Recover the amino acids of this structure.
């Protein structure tokens, strides 16, 4: 049986727009992992639809989410009588889409630990060619999200509906009439707005009595109402239930009374993972109709009380068997031996009786701040304020008095100064004095409409530059300089905090990386009299914050790109590795020269790049893997291949230049001046020499020159000097 | 290049992301605590406890430069240092007839001691003793650099985060100060044949090398007045006028320890982490008989003692939170795959049997269920009525809840630690009380220079938790936490500062959060890591500082009771000088 890393589904291709839905949402995990994925890192618009009850619960936790409603829009959906429970995700690319429809929520448990069932379909649209039938699924998924938007609470729903209307402007192929698309898609998207999951089964099998009903589900009605109903409806049908002891809430008492048509199986080999997968199949003759996605085997899910989304398809029995043919197996168990779990299926949220509630806060594109709130106190508040707080800051940036007049909505026009203050994720609170007591509402993340559409090119040069930077890192230092000069230090810090260079190793799907663009020209930072003006104007505090942003950016790229390559050892990722490697080294060297970075730190980051490219390093409890070592392992020591690839990518040249930079920094800051820079950092040099020796590579001037060209930092004189000082 | 095509996936099980190992699960030790102690004991870390390495290692560099550099085939300083260190370790062991130096921490001795018997009676080839795989310089390098023994031209103080920086020592030159230090060590061993023939001897006998241990060993620095002793004292007590403020903090801390030892030895009290904590946090000396004696620090040491008090605030807070974490992790373990809801755990705290058990532990009666009570009411059960969590309340708590009080931080800490209550709801109740007591006691320090100093150790309030951060969030969320029932406070505190804090830190350390001991899903906490046994927070640099003072012959164990540390006459002279300043 194949296992799929859910998060890696987001690493396949860069998306322009993403609609994601989940019952439970963990913004921390989302921001740390999924938002940084290739699909979402540069997506123009990202929407996460979340169940309203879970959203309200989330508000109570003071989550340190940095991009909530600023980089991605979270839309709470309220389904009266039930819950919003789908796990349907749609990624729209320039010429295609991916649809994921599984059982996992967007939480750490759902994405990395629980036992979930995943489905993913990829649709490629090629101009001039017939549209694939799966385009119908894309259109249906969009319709699903549009209908979900109708149930949204607050201004987020208005935004999302507007965005959905605008989709054809970016994706012209969405204008096609569904009826004009020929053929049937591989699967059917079954969602509660269209038909109930149970209704889909009934339509699929018409009036034929199924021979077998297979159920894999973590949750059931506490009285097994649905099961009893189907047992009665299909009395001859064999029912196989696969559940997990101690987690699935399967009432064995009720089950025992249902006769001998029921067989119960326990899951084994799950390595302590909680079963959260949902799969229901109905067998009629030789065909098996299956439904897998978000729907548990409960009345609320199957009868459409909840909002659910599943893929429905006809499969072969062998496909079903494959699920249990490896580590994960099912074992028949007597009903009386089954130990039921106590966790109950999701149910409708009961509003808590807080004295004041802030449901929604949004800042529209015209600078109008709209809040929706409710006061539940017997007496009206003596005073009430809306306060706005920035991420990480203790004190509010602004407070606004709210006059209480039974209204549940209030609009405040923000002045230009206040608008400037709104940076990063903002939390809004209502603070009221009621009967002499100060009461604070749970927070609401401010929806910042104008920031939610991510236009990398806005005000920062050309789109192409931005694209190149996120694809390869090339041009970053120059672009950063542009921002520092023209938009100021805070904008540069924000830019660095949000920037991630993409990971690519050829083992992932998507087009191969573009060839390195010609390097932009830059002034030679090795000239000491050339410290830029903006650097001289920085206050100490600004310099420190900017400095930290440089380090954080470097650490993040080392962690998420270089070290990932070092773990995977896929030689196809060499180009991407070197792009990021060059970007970090160049940034550190230039930052040091400009007086922003401390020499030891700048040198350390460069050395970390060298460690990551060679054989790694271990220090102070931190372990860095080495890409060369892992490639060696992955290629079983196939030296000719590795040598060829390393020479083609000019690894020797890049190793030497990085070492020259680090050595120069080190030498000028307390190294052994009488021996010259080439003798300092011998341990790191030994690592470089070891790689060169193993591959039997002798370095040549042209390699160094070529690498120097890629840095685009140095004038001819410096280049000559560095060529001369090569000691490798 | 291999191009893999996008593949549709149907009915595929999700992949399990395996847990990866990590330490400091709440970030309480490696973040705030380390930042504080790296100022208070700058350049004395948990792994640099022996003073002699501070002169021996510079000597290695100087000796290499003088005798080997450019003259022999050994062209790496690191190799040269490892070679000297190996001989040095063997010399120390030989001088102690196969044992390590007093107080240990002789790098490489674990490997060599067992071999000693096999080589003691024969000629030894120098090549045989290359056993120091992780040489002392790796541990001491950053500390030595911080003491400006190298020509580094540091433009800033090395902070604890910088210990991760690879200060490469292969390219190091000694500063003027470093040269003096190296020279002083050379003075101790200059005449020894083993030193004179260090580069030429290919083989030698144990007796040849034991002289090195005799005159240049770790604990031998304490004997008589070896030439490097004075300069090392000057170095640690910053008589060499190093500019950074942390050098002064270290100097004052060492003086504080000397003063503490002096006072405690006169009361027959052992100077250790606990007694030191009591002295700085409660201004109390706890005698073996159980009697408590009030102790006020001399005015010249008040500043540093108060900084250590701030450190101790953070320690008690860390202990409380880590104890709760232990319970949460183990509860998740015992619940297995079912996991548990935090509400369930909190509910347990209200059970009559648990409350009865806590009453027994504290030997006090509660009026009602723990969850229905407020921190105010809990403390009131001991007869102390502190109405509000403000400065007045803080002053009252500080004056009435002394070291011996049942609700004192020390008592609560000891009750949890000594009875290993980490795994129990009783442990959580005591930890929660400890947390509120420490928070209220801190209020009187809020907005003072010392309170702000503690707050400045916080870089990121979402990752760095310490008392003022707890206070800030309590006020932000609950307003009057002191008069709020535990049924409201407990879930908020445990969720934010233990459960979410752990998840935040795990995500910070690994992007998929694979370092998390547990995960939360729809309010259910489920285990990922099998065990987390007990809180790991403590003052990691304390014992190193004491050992340094012993090595410098300023402290000495009492001959009748080794646990009691007496100040030597040299130590007293230093103290006198400190006070006269």
């Amino acid at each position: 049986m194949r296992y799929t890393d859910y998060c890696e589904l987001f690493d396949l291709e860069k998306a322009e727009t993403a609609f994601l839905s989940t019952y439970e949402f963990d913004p921390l995990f989302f921001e740390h992992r999924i938002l940084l994925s290739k699909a979402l890192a540069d997506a123009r618009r990202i929407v996460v639809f979340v169940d309203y009850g879970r959203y309200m619960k989330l508000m109570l936790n003071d989550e340190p989410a940095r991009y909530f409603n600023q980089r991605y829009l979270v839309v709470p959906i309220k389904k009266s009588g039930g819950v919003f429970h789908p796990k349907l995700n749609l990624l729209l690319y320039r010429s295609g889409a991916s649809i994921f429809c599984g059982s996992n929520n967007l939480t750490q448990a759902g994405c990395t630990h629980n036992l979930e069932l995943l489905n993913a379909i990829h649709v490629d649209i090629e101009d001039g060619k017939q549209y694939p039938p799966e385009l119908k699924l894309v259109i249906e998924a969009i319709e699903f999200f549009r209908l979900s938007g109708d149930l949204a609470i607050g201004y987020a729903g208005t935004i999302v509906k507007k965005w959905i209307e605008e989709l054809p402007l970016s994706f012209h192929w969405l204008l096609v009439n569904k009826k004009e698309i020929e053929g049937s898609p591989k699967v059917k998207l079954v969602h509660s707005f269209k038909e109930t999951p149970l209704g889909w089964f009934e339509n699929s099998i018409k009036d034929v009595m199924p021979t077998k009903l297979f159920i894999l589900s973590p949750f059931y009605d506490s009285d097994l109402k649905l099961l009893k109903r189907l047992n009665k409806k299909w009395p001859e049908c064999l029912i196989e239930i696969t559940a997990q002891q101690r987690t699935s809430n399967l009432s064995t008492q009720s089950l025992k009374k249902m006769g001998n048509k029921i067989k119960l199986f326990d899951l084994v080999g799950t390595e302590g993972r909680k079963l959260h997968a949902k799969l229901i199949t109905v067998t009629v003759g030789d065909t098996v109709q299956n439904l897998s996605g978000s729907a548990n085997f409960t009345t609320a899910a199957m009868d459409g009380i909840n909002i659910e989304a599943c893929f429905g398809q006809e499969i072969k029995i062998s496909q079903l068997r494959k699920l249990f043919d490896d580590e994960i197996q099912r074992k028949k168990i007597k009903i009386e031996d089954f130990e039921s779990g106590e966790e109950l299926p999701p149910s409708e949220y009961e509003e808590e009786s807080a004295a004041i509630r802030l449901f929604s806060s949004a800042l529209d594109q015209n600078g109008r701040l709209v809040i929706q709130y409710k006061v539940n106190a017997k007496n009206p508040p003596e005073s009430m304020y809306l306060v706005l707080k920035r991420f990480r800051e203790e004190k509010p940036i602004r407070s606004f008095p709210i006059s209480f007049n039974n209204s549940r909505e209030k609009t405040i026009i923000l002045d230009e100064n206040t608008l400037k203050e709104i940076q990063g994720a903002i939390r809004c609170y209502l603070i009221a004095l009621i009967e002499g007591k100060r009461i604070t509402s749970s927070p609401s993340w401010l929806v910042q409409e104008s920031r939610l559409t991510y236009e990398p090119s806005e005000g920062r040069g050309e789109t192409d530059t931005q694209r190149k930077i996120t694809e390869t890192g090339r041009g970053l230092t120059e672009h950063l300089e542009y921002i520092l000069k023209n938009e100021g230090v805070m904008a540069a810090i924000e830019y660095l905090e949000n920037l991630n260079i993409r990971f690519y190793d050829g083992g992932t799907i998507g087009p191969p990386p573009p060839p390195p663009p010609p390097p932009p020209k830059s002034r030679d930072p090795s000239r000491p009299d050339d410290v830029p003006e903006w650097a001289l104007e920085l206050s100490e505090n600004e310099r420190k914050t900017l400095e930290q942003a440089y380090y954080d950016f470097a650490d993040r790229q080392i962690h998420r790109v270089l070290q990932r390559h070092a773990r995977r050892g896929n030689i196809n990722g060499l180009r991407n590795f070197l792009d990021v490697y060059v970007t970090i080294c160049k940034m550190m060297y230039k930052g040091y020269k400009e007086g922003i970075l401390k020499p030891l730190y700048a040198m350390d980051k460069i050395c970390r790049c060298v460690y990551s490219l060679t054989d790694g390093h271990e220090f102070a409890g931190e372990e860095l893997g080495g890409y060369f070592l892992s490639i060696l392992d992955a290629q079983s020591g196939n030296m000719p291949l590795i040598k060829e690839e390393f020479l083609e990518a000019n690894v020797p040249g890049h190793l030497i230049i990085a070492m020259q930079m680090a050595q120069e920094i080190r030498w000028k800051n307390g190294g052994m001046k009488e021996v010259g820079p080439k003798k300092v950092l011998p341990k790191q040099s030994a690592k470089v020499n070891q790689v060169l020796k193993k591959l039997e590579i002798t370095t040549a001037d042209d390699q160094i020159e070529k690498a120097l060209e890629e840095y685009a930092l140095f004038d001819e004189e410096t280049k000559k000097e560095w060529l001369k000082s090569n000691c490798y | 290049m291999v191009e893999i095509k996008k593949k549709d996936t149907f009915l595929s099980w999700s992949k399990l992301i395996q847990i990866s190992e990590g330490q400091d699960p709440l970030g309480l030790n490696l973040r705030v605590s380390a930042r504080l102690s790296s100022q208070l004991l700058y350049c004395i870390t948990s792994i640099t406890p022996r003073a002699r390495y501070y002169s021996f290692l510079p000597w290695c560099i100087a000796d290499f430069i003088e005798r080997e550099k450019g003259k022999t085939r050994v062209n790496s300083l690191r190799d040269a240092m490892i070679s000297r260190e190996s001989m040095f370790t063997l010399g120390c062991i030989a001088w102690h007839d196969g044992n390590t130096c007093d107080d240990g921490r002789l790098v490489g001795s674990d490997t060599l001691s067992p071999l000693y018997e096999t080589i003691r009676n024969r000629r030894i080839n120098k090549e045989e003793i290359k056993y120091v795989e992780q040489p002392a310089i790796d541990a001491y390098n950053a500390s030595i650099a911080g003491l400006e023994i190298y020509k580094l031209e540091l433009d800033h103080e090395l902070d604890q985060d910088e210990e991760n920086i690879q200060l490469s020592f292969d390219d190091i030159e000694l500063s003027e100060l470093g040269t003096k230090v190296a020279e002083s060590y050379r003075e101790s061993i200059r005449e020894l044949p083993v030193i004179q023939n260090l580069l030429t001897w290919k083989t030698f006998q144990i007796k040849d090398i034991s002289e090195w241990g005799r005159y240049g060993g770790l604990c031998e620095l304490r004997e008589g007045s070896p030439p490097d002793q004075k300069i090392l004292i000057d170095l640690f007590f910053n008589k060499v006028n190093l500019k950074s403020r942390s050098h002064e903090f270290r100097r004052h801390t060492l003086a504080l320890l000397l003063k503490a030892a002096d006072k405690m030895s006169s009361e027959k009290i052992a100077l250790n982490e606990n007694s030191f904590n009591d002295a700085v946090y409660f201004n109390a000396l706890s005698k073996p008989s159980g009697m408590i004696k009030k102790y006020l620090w001399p005015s010249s040491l008040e500043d540093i003692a108060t900084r250590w008090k701030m450190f101790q605030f953070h320690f008690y807070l860390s202990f409380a939170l880590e104890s709760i974490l232990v319970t949460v992790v183990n509860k998740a373990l015992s619940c297995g795959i079912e996991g548990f809801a935090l509400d369930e755990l909190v509910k347990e705290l209200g059970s009559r049997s648990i409350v009865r058990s806590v009453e027994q532990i504290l030997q006090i009666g509660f009026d009602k269920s723990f969850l229905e009570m407020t921190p105010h009411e809990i403390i009131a059960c001991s007869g102390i009525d502190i109405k509000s969590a403000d400065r007045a309340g803080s002053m009252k708590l500080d004056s009435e809840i002394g070291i011996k009080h049942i609700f004192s931080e020390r008592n609560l800490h000891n009750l949890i630690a000594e009875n290993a209550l980490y795994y129990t709801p009783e442990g959580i109740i005591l930890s929660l009380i400890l947390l509120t007591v420490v928070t209220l006691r801190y209020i009187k320090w809020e907005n003072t220079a010392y309170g702000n100093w503690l707050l400045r150790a916080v870089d990121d309030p979402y990752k760095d938790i310490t008392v003022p951060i707890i206070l800030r969030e309590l006020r932000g969320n609950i307003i009057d936490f002191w008069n709020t029932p535990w049924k409201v406070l407990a879930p908020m505190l445990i969720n934010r500062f233990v459960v979410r804090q752990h998840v935040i830190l795990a995500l910070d350390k690994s992007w998929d959060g694979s370092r998390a001991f547990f995960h939360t899903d729809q309010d259910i906490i489920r285990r990922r890591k099998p065990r987390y046994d007990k809180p790991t927070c403590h003052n990691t640099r304390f014992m190193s500082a004491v050992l340094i003072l012993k090595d410098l012959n300023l402290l000495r164990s009492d001959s009748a009771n080794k646990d009691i540390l007496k100040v030597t006459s040299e130590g007293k002279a230093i103290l006198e000088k400190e006070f006269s300043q």
